[in-house]
Amino acid sequence: MGNSYAGQLRTTRFEEVLHNSIEASLRSNTVVPRPVFSQLFLETEQPLAHDGGLHGCKGEGVISQRVYFLSFFLKCCVFLVCVSPTGRTENDDEDEEVGSESNSPPIPYQMKPPPEGCCTVTGFCQAAKDLRLSSVGSDPLDVPAGFMLVGVKCPSLPETLLVCAVDRRFLPDERGHDALLGFLGNCIGCGEKGFRYFTEFSNHINLKLSTQPKKQKHLKYHLCRNNQNVLVKGAPICWRGHDGRMRQTGSSLSEAHMTSDQQLPNMALTHPPHTPASYTGSNVDPNGLPQIAGVPHSQTNGNHVVPPNAQPVLNQSRPGRPSAKGSLANAGPPKKRHKGWSPESSANGQSESTAKTPTSSSALSTVPVSSVLTNGARSENAAPLSLLQGSSLTSLSPPGLSVTIPDQLLHTCRLRPVIFKGHGSLPQLTGNADEVLLSSLLQSCYLSSQNLPRVYQHYGPSPIQPLSAEMQILLTVYYLVQLGPDQVPLVEDLEQIFMRSWRESHLSEIRQYQQPQTPGSQGRHYGIETTSTLPGLPLHLSLPPQSQQPLTPSQLPWLAQLAASSCGESVVVLEENIGSLAHGLQQMFSRLMEGRLENTNYVVIIVTAAGQETQSCVVVTGRHQCRALAESMFSPKEGLTEINHQLSTGVSQELIQYCNSQEDGDLDSLLDGATVDNSEPSPLSSSQESTEERCLKTTHSPKDTNSPTGSHAQSSKDLPSPQERASSPKDTCSEYSVEWREVRPIQLAVARKLLSHVCAIADSSTQNLDLGSFDRVSFLILVPSSEVTFQQTVLHLWNSGVLQELGGSDQECVSQREAERYVVKLDQSARARIDSLTQEAQSNSYTLYILVHDHAHCDVKSASHSSSDSGLGLVDQLLNSRQVTDTPNILILHVTSFPFALQTQYTRISPYNEIHWPSAFSNDVDLYHEKTRYFGVSELLESTRSGSSLPLMRHDSSFESMASALEERFPKLHSAVIRTTVLIQQYCIALMAASGRVGSAHNLHKHTSVETLEIVQSLLTASQQCPAHHGHMVLLRIPSLALAAWAHRRLSRVRRQLGLEESFEIILGNPNQALNIGQSFTDQIKTWLKIQDADWVPRTYLELEALPCILILSGAEPLGESLPRSLKYCDLRVISYSYLQRTTLEQELGLAAYLVRAEARPPNNLGPGSDLLESDAEKLSSTDNEEEEGQENGESPLSFSQQLQSCPDGGASDPFSTQSTTSPNVPKKGTVDTIQPPLHSQSQLQPLTQSLQNTQATIHQTQVQSHSPALPISQLQPQPQFQIQNQPLSQTNSQPCAQTLPQQQSLSQMPIPQPQSQPLPAAQSRLQHSKSTSPGSLSPRASSPNHTCSWARGVSRPPSVLLPRALYDIITASDSSGLPRCTSFLPHMSVAWASSFRPLLSKMMTCTEQSLYYRQWTVPRSYHMDSSNRTEGRSDNFHPRRLLLSGPPQVGKTGAYLHFLGILSRMLIRLMEVDIYDEEDIYYNEKEQGVLYHPSNSSWPNPGIMKTMPFDYTIHDPKYDDISSVYCPGFTPSFEGHPVRQEDVYLRRRTSRIKLSKYAAYNTYHHCEQCHQYLGFNPRYQMYESSLRAFTFTHLLLGEEIQLYFIIPKSKEHYFSFSQPGGQLESMRLPLTSDWSPDCIKSPIFTPTTGRHEHGLFNLYHAMDGASHLHILVVKEYEMAVYKKYWPNHIMLVLPTVFNGAGIGAAHFLIKELSYHNLELERSRRLEGGGPTDDVWPFIILADDSCVMWNAVDLDAHSGSVEHAVSLKQILQHMEACPELAHYGLCGIRKWSSRGLTGNKQREPFSRGHLHDFLLLNVDRSQNVQYNQNRFTCHDVDFTLRLHSAGLLVCRFNSFSVMKKQIAIGGYRTFIIKTKTTDVPTAVGPSQYICAPDSKHLFLATPAQLLLEKYLQHTRQKLFPLSTKNYTHPVLSVDCYLNLGPEVTVCFVSSRPHSVNISTTGMLFSGLLLCFADSFVTPGFLKKFTFLKGATLCVISADRSSLRQTVGRLELEEEWRFRLSDEFQTANAKEDRPLFFLTGKHI
After folding, report:
1. Which of 673, 674, 1821, 1943 allows an S-S link to 997, with CB 3.0 to 4.6 Å?
2. What is the pTM of this model?
3. CA 1383/CA 1381 separation, integer angstroms
4. DSSP states of 1742-1753 as a string?
């Protein structure tokens, strides 16, 4: 073993290191070997020569040896990688000190058994001698020469040390160097000497170790004597260059960042293994140190050692990269069994991001964002932010601990440090507290990451634990280390790092809890997900899984120092001799004031005192970071307040004066010398004339009449004025058109989606909205407090036609003033409007009021946290008030482009009530075929990566450089003030340069940027190319009103002095003021829009279409102002760090959203990176077709920098000029060789002034000079040349791959490829750009050759967007999910993240899933209006009548909801109307109506008169126009026309739309408050309880007992009598005849129904006008459950099972027989009670389930008979009050017809004839006449004929009518005929309904009676050929009526004695029909009738036996001839009991 390894590499040293590395790799659980590169190259101990030379040939030998061992080591690394170890590294670290071993589970160590009989007591050696320091400290000890006393730490005695003597050669010196491998020690107890191995020595002194003994771990302290000569613990032994806590013994951290070459592998930053190529590419440094490619000298050994005599010097070409030259301290020889740590973790991998290179070259674009560790929080519990200043800082810690802030801190350091509270309490800060900012956001992040998700807290005690404080601090240091020099920390990144580290440390436990989830559920469960990379770290940087061993406080400082050592001085960790945070802060302030933190961005203070919790804080000391963090602490409104304060106090005047001073002279003097001909001064617009301009009017600029070149002589008089343009008829543009007023197909689709959601609310069982009760719609639109937005909404409303449709005015064209009544701004005046609407809504319950809250994201403030004069909180006060939310006829519709603030855990909007704007494309299919295509943020992002053209969204590097330099110079000014001043200065200079009115001697181009010059030149020249002088708009977004006003005055003054007042307008967009432009420009717009109104002025930005103008849009945020399609440039370069939440960021970008003409389809130009995904149209990352490019019409928007290809003079007039036809991929010869690639900036021009250059010492720019002076407007034409050497790249980091992007809603729909770690060189980037461009893509002439108007060309292309560099990097960066980085930001400043353990948004989420994500992971802050929306005990707090419409900005949401209002109104009208059968009576004979039997005003019929009236056998009901007519003497029907099948008649019947009256019957969809109790459904209570009661009676016809079931609700049991309460059902109570009540109906109402549980009109509450009545639904058994579900409060009579397949006849039969049986029971009960039996009410009502309304005839009207709607109660009470009603067997009313009363004013009020649909039946008098229970059709005709023949009176009340609603669903007329072999209905003809008996035939699964009736109906010509169209010879039908078809007439006769029949004397019948002939039919009875020869006989019986018996009994064979082939049966199987019939011919 050698004594020193200084400057040389020994073979034994290499073998030792290699052996230890292999061993560690075999034990490791990762496949990456433990690199030992740093151990192979040992730095020399002596300093190197400063001249870079080597120390003789010795250094050369070292280099050659290192190269040799390097190649050998690489081969070993390949071997190590192939080993793929499966074990884990050992971890000996049992105590609080960190060892050199890995932090893996320890390998058990078996100690050698002690000799028998020796002492084994801890603290004593094996000779039983005491070794404890407390015992031997006072004893004299024998220490040999060369030895020193050392304290040994014993694990079992942590409170004391053991004393031993060790040879000092095997111990390190005070710097940790020169320690020999091995050990030599003596025992001071027994005196034994010569222990050569520490293992042997540890056994002797009874250390009792469980792991392998190592001297580095247990030899801890030097021992020395104090003044009392007592041995005490001295300095710790410095084994690693520092001790376990990285103590420094001689120098401070600023002088030397010394680290050990040891590190815990699992805590280090690990990287993928480097390929051999990465090592072979190393070069030899001149200093003699081999340098790996891309690694600075100081990082070669993982150490940043800066000796005191060599401070780092920043390389000017690469700012911030340390290039220290001088001595590099030797880290000392490796210790025994040492595991080397990889220099890659701190050097190689950080060569870009931590060496302070520009952000564009960094592997990760981490930039200031919404939560730059300070943003978004406003003293909130979830993520609080404390911006404490002044005396408020005194409450931070207990008294006694204080830190004094140095005086003049801001003045000296030119920054305000930001202190982030971490763990523990900060000390009290005294002094000038205004110069320090405090934030608790980092502390909140720590606390949030320690709150485990609830899913892991339900299992009781769990091994899953949160991250420790030490691990949080270490991860924070790791994160800060990898940040670039211009990057600002993001709290979202840190939270994701914490989550990832925590997840990997408990991976097995988490998987155990997640096992029950199925794959199907995991896709929708937003739990913790694993990301491939940490969002806050570069792609090559990730954290390894934690070990089971926790990180101890003693390990933390060493590891933090180790991590910080890799980034130079960017991150400094203070922990050396830091006893408290106060001490650390005081030391930090001292260093800051001394200038020792000049290159430090972050200072991390760590306090790890023994026995106390770890404390920490982070101090931000980087100038850029401090400014960004300080400004991000402000909300947008607070930032504007600060700006206004700076402007009002005059702090900014120095900046303005500084910018005005040019090296060539003062800017104002240059303006005064501008060559403007003022002989004919142009009138300045009065609206734009400011005070400053009025003062300047008196000054005159000198005239430049002698222009040297003549090119500058064009003055304002050469430009036609707007008046001249307007008066010239020939100056018109045929390409100009305004199309923004049109309603697009996608808007119609969204309107229908809104309507369907409203209908869903009404259809739900919650009964929160009863659409059926509303007859009209009224609305009020609430907009933000912006005058332009207000007028814009009014304009849309006026042009939509909604007001005319809703009946808002009787005028045909509503005035715009009329429309203003329906729109209100959300200011203090809105309260009165809302209160008025609420009162109106409460008084008009039949009107549905829609409150449309447009731009709903603008005000979400809670009313309790808002002042009355702030204008905020109004939405909470008004829309969330009880009077609005509790009004049932008010529906609220929120409309917004950014719904995130309304999607929290406490939201008031149900997720089912959200409507998302649909995608226009799905799988490359255009769904809506629109004329325009939406171009939004997603498409803007696409342009940044499409390599075919300059991206539409870009940043201006020259502007950024100027602004950054001024920010350094003026640290107290807000960045918005600086950036606005620079921007306006650039515009002023660009105007001067482009106008050509400033002398060419002044080189103005170098004082502005290329982008600004392009904007100004395009603005000035656009109107020159159109005959009508159309131009485009330039938008300047300046949020501060004061700055915007200053900018407006400044630009207006420059414009006036340059004589450009008539060229373009400058508009100040103040949200509080109306739009105001000059009269000349107003006249110009009126000419274009052809407006004749003299008083018209534009009120919206949309009306400025094609006006050349600069719009300065001010205000804290855009308030929904829509911009015209002539917008060409959207300049957002002034937006600051306050606008960095997702909502505010996307809101600013939404200003550039655009509707592009769809006919301009781009070519299929997909880059190599395209990836077309066929996914859902609503997916966030769904990809449409490849034609959806950012540019339309094949034209690529070129910036000025690209126009320089064709314009060497830099004066291109039009970036889309048709002359630019030179293809960039065909460059001229030699152009590639002349490319001058810029270093690190894009298109940076020469700085503003020479003094400005001095402030930009760290910024080098490529100076791009123009080869010719600026050209005037007259000569600004492009030249067809191609010179690339002067082309400045507008962006060097644009990705060459083009990925197609969808037309979607927001940034979240945009997948972004991971940024490349190395940008392309400038030349290569330009060449690749040329290759990816199609030959015609840059040539506008190819696709639009006829566009001479710049405006016409512009509407096919979206505007260009200029962003600050910080925002640009945010938007173009992506996270691990592939989405834009800003999608993971805090969505809104009023919400907070619910937990740090949240997943990232997935690019496969739909819009609905994204909403659910925010609903799960965000909570409102205390000042959010939804923060109080939480009620205990409720699962949700959704308002039932609240909708949310979200869609991209500027996509057309206003037009969509306006159209929704129109179709909602039409639907309500439609709901109030029903289709009523409106058919005129058939076979009506007016001659018979000539005689009036009753007076026309008779109220009731007279029985005596009724008996004298003839019975009308003719069927007049039009529903029976397809059945056989009943023979009536003297009537001849018409058989004209073709007969129609009955099924078709049902569908073709004539209907009319009639508005429902207030007495209508309703179906189950009607939910009004009055009906709640009637319907028996209330969501607050359980469903009404019902009981099932059996009722049995016997009937002779059925031959058996009939058991029926009643379902009786509890509330209806009083209608029935029981044997006892709850006992057997005895009867249904019937009233007495003498009873009468004005609110009661005596007759029970029976309604048989089938298949109409939803659509049947069973709600008679309104029809009965609230009267008490008994209503019973008669249902089939299999439908009992569904009817009970929909009608829980209705009594139901359930038919027996055998009647499941029966028809309407069976239902009426059972109703009638049950009613008669019940009548007998009630009479018996009445008799038992002692009353008369005849007094029981015998009538029942048989009502159809489609009766909807009832009418009465008003005979008192002067115009004759007029019908009006009446209640059913009125009709029934009138009929029940008939004096002699008991004489009638059946009563009814007529069916309504719109022509029923026309032409006959003296119609008979009562008549005798057939009755249908609504019957009042006397069950007592009709006892002997039953309904035929087998009938399916015409059962009422058959029953009426038999009832009349029995002598009973039938009366129809013609003064009443019933309206029947057309219901196409269900009913007894819906018959399905199907075969028995299949359940599917098949086409079976009528001829197949019957078959021959005993034949093989296809049997049908249809009742036999139905088959028979259908067969007889459809085969009349075959069966009764003589009867067809032969009315005088009808078919004789005995005792029944059957339908034989409309062409056959039936003569009904009854065989009963004393029956009433028509006279048949002399009649010849064409047929005889005997159906189930009973005993009353005899041969003698049949002989009374005469038949034609050949007449047909049809005998029908139940079986063949009875059929033969009937033939024999009636002696039919005597007159009728029968054949065996004439016997038939229905096509039923034997078990289905077919019917048989026999036919014969009359002889």
Report:
1. 674
2. 0.64
3. 5
4. EE-TTEEEEEEE
